[in-house]
Design a protein that fits this description.
CATH class of the largest domain: Mainly Alpha
Shape: globular
Distance between the termini: 47 Å
CATH topology of the largest domain: Glycosyl hydrolase family fold
Structural class: alpha+beta
Helix content: 25-40%
Low-confidence stretches: 1-37
CATH superfamily of the largest domain: alpha-1,2-mannosidases domains
Mean pLDDT: 94
Largest sheet: 10 strands, antiparallel
Strand content: 15-25%
Strand order of the largest sheet: 2-5-6-7-8-17-12-11-10-15
CATH architecture of the largest domain: Up-down Bundle
Number of helices: 22
Number of domains: 3
């Protein structure tokens, strides 16, 4: 693929930047061509997904860190590789979100007089030739002659700016501009080294309840002068400035005639100014190099829990880049003293666990949740406990939480499979009944009017009639998405969640509940239209509505009936019965994946038949590999007796992940797509989200060694072997665990805990392995 670069003459300032860097920086392509010296962090390309609305960010963060310090170029979610002007390096970003979010306190170094207060106008131009990024680090040479470097701890962002020799070296701290809407802002210059802000913002796809983030920035040396601005008025010497909407910020100035380097540490808190100060005291005070080295070491250890051998260089780079992005969220939400702001907007203290926020549940419950359960169980436990805590604090479980508020973005009931997964993985010990009570309340009711949550918004109709009605144009009662706008897919999501909760109820001995939820898990049948052979939305009166053509269906969130038809992981045999049996299901799957074309040219089929743009969700009868409703779909073949086709489809979809800014297929959605890549490349995939069932397909790598937490996996490791795996040699002939034959196309978490080796023997043609009825993953109902 040819990379887009600006063709322009180097200015004297740009040459000075190269000198500051000690040479020309490597572009992402050049970085990718350099052999790594044994460090897995060197395989990570942080620019993957920064073009064509992958919406990732290249900046500095540590695993699950509160701070994500990254450049913003003007794209609504932060950084766009095609743009060449940096508006600022801001403190908060989420990987792959689809709407503007975060971007709080963009900071930018400049030289000369401060005359402009709009960062879209004072933005600094730069070239990708003078840009570098990796886990825990970002650097750019600005055309102004300034070198900017970023690194991070969990709660702080650390900046190092190397200026030209000048008496007017500035750092602009812009509190009034972000990637969303600011409601009110305040800046205070506390002394000759410290600036404090409070930023209240709102909005994520739609207006939501406001949240406030507090920051304190400490410079490593006194500034020579400072001032503030409000709107377009700059006031030298001013110490404070407040605003509602509109521009608001502070600037500080240094004399870099001799000492050309300025370092600054910005601490965040979602609690109060005291929390930001405590976070700064606990995690600040170190040099940039020390923080950078610590961040890189943290990432090296985290990535080192997964050691892949074999595969092409591109596969290894995309794999480790995806693994890296899988650990970027959720994010630490409490300060170092344990305090956090709950969804009731009161201050609480986390005791015995770390409180996490930023829960993109509709996305992550299908892939990233399970990957973290496997590789980061301690953090996953705390994330699950945080979710339960949200119910305690606010009275209801979350749907899509950002910071301290519920956004209600997306639909269905994603919190149920999210939490039942934690339960099934053994991560809720001591909290099982507590979690179950919250889930039961969520599954059987609707949040009250004074709650910011919408929960299962269409639950009244669903419980009475067995389906969520599709009511086009219904007025939204609360901010966010509405299940009534997507009644058909909401019905499928509710039914899936009922199945998972029914299994949990059964395990905990709640027999009546288990029976009730298990029966409700069959509600997917209520929206099956036998006249079309597909799921179809029903209106409030119960009549099927919208076009009969399943490719043009209405009432499905970010998809069509074709794409949602396989989202019945709790009862695939029952689904197959509705559409004419297993043979009919296989025929439909083959059409859905354009299977004959796929065999002839997998890459072309993936790019020209399946994918039609990151937001092209509708009017399609083919597989959409870049969006959540279809993430499990390739593994449906495991239940039709044709597991070799799962490998064919998965390996074709994996070609969409490349080592380029365009190498993310669709939005990453807080690690969702990245986790899909990681799990599918290893060859184990969570085919029934909310349970402990892992479907199997051919690994991309000849060997992957997983280091696992012994508290949850007594063996402490799992090695997945696939000698000779390749595009041609991709079909499983046999499989084994610790030397014993494995006849099934799935494993459970309990079985994974008991083994240390999963091996595949491969060949160039499909075999009979996994084709018997007994080999298929069992239905829950």
């Amino acid at each position: 693929m040819r990379w887009s670069r600006r063709s322009r003459l180097r200015t004297a300032g740009a040459l000075a930047v190269a000198a500051l860097f000690g040479g020309t920086f490597l572009s992402p392509v050049a970085q990718a061509d350099v052999p790594h010296a044994g460090r897995l962090t060197d395989l990570v390309n942080s620019f993957i997904g920064t073009q064509n609305d992958g919406n990732t960010y290249p900046g500095a963060a540590v695993p699950f860190g509160m701070v994500q310090l990254s450049p913003d170029t003007g794209h609504n979610t932060g950084y766009d590789y095609t743009q060449n002007r940096i508006r600022g390096f801001s403190m908060v970003h989420l990987s792959g979100v689809g709407c503007g979010l975060g971007g709080d306190l963009p900071v930018l170094p400049t030289t000369g007089d401060v005359t402009e207060t709009d960062n879209a106008k004072y933005a600094a131009t730069f070239s990708h030739d003078d840009e570098k990024a990796g886990p825990g680090y970002y650097a750019a040479g600005l055309d102004s002659g300034i070198k900017a470097e970023l690194t991070a701890t969990s709660r702080t962002g650390v900046q190092r700016y190397t200026f030209p020799a000048t008496t007017k070296a500035n750092v602009l701290l812009n509190a009034g501009q972000s990637l969303h809407k600011t409601v009110s802002t305040k800046v205070e210059i506390l002394n000759s080294r410290t600036v404090r802000t409070a930023i209240t913002g709102s909005g994520f796809c739609q207006d939501t309840v406001p949240y406030t983030v507090y920051t304190v920035t400490r410079f490593d040396r006194p500034f020579t002068s400072s001032g503030t601005w409000k709107d377009t008025t700059v006031t030298a010497g001013s110490k404070t400035s407040s605003a509602t909407t509109g521009g608001n910020g502070a600037y500080v100035r240094f004399d870099t005639s001799k000492d050309r380097t300025v370092e600054a540490t910005t601490a965040l808190s979602y609690v109060d100014a005291k929390g930001a100060a405590l976070n700064l005291a606990a995690e600040g005070g170190r040099t940039f190099d020390n923080v950078h080295n610590a961040a890189q070491s943290t990432w090296e250890k985290r990535l080192g829990d997964v050691k892949a051998q074999g595969g092409s260089d591109t596969q290894r780079r995309t794999f480790y880049s995806s693994l890296y992005r899988s650990f970027l969220a959720p994010n630490v939400g409490n300060d170092v003293d344990g305090r956090y702001t709950g969804w009731d907007q009161n201050i609480h203290r986390a005791r015995g666990f770390t409180y996490y926020q930023n829960l993109s549940l509709w996305d992550t419950y299908r892939t990233q949740t399970q990957l973290l359960s496997l590789l980061a169980p301690r953090e996953t436990r705390d994330i699950a406990l945080s979710t339960i805590q949200i119910d305690k604090d606010s009275g209801w479980l979350p749907k899509w939480g950002y910071g301290t508020v519920e956004t209600n973005i997306m639909t269905g009931d994603p919190v149920t499979p999210f939490l039942t997964n934690a339960y099934q993985q053994g991560l809720l010990k001591g909290h099982e009944e507590e979690a179950y009570r919250a889930l039961k309340k969520n599954a059987d009711g609707v949040p009250p009017a004074d709650s910011p949550a919408v929960g299962r918004e269409a639950n009244k109709e669903y419980l009475a009639d067995g389906f969520a009605p599709y009511i086009a144009g219904r007025e939204h009662v609360k901010p966010g998405d509405s299940d009534y706008d997507h009644g058909a897919s909401a019905t499928l999501e509710y039914a899936l969640s009922d199945a998972m909760l029914g299994q949990m109820a059964k395990d905990l001995g709640h027999r009546d509940d288990a029976k009730r939820y298990t029966e409700r898990a069959q509600n997917y049948r209520t929206i099956f239209d036998s006249s079309t052979g597909f799921f179809r939305a029903r209106d409030a009166a119960g009549a099927f509505t919208g076009p009969a053509d399943p490719a043009e269906s209405e009432g499905f969130h970010e998809g069509t009936s074709w794409q949602y038809q396989w989202m019945v992981p709790q009862d695939l045999p029952g689904l197959f019965g509705l559409i004419g049996g297993t043979d009919a299901a296989n025929s439909r799957l083959d059409s859905f994946f354009a299977y004959d074309q796929l065999l002839q040219d997998p890459g072309k089929t993936a790019r020209e038949v399946w994918v039609n743009g990151p937001y092209d969700y509708y009017n399609a009868d083919k597989y959409n590999p870049q969006n959540e409703p279809d993430l499990i779909a390739p593994y449906t073949y495991l239940s039709t007796g044709q597991p070799s086709k799962t490998t064919d489809v998965v390996h074709a979809a994996l070609t969409l992940f490349t080592d380029a800014p365009t190498g993310m297929t669709g939005n990453d959605d807080l690690g969702t797509m990245s986790a899909w890549n990681v799990l599918s490349s290893i060859g184990i995939f969570p085919i029934q989200p909310g349970t402990d069932t892992w479907g199997l397909s051919t690994p991309v790598f000849t060997r992957v060694d997983l280091t696992l937490d012994r508290r949850y996996y007594p063996k402490g490791k799992l090695t997945v072997r696939a000698p000779g795996t390749s595009d041609a040699n991709r079909y499983i002939q046999s499989a084994g665990t610790d030397g014993n034959d494995l006849k099934t196309t799935y494993l459970t978490t309990d079985s994974l805990r008991k083994i240390s080796d999963l091996s595949f023997k491969l060949g160039e043609t499909p075999s009979s392995w996994g084709t018997s009825k007994d080999a298929a993953p069992p239905a829950l109902n």
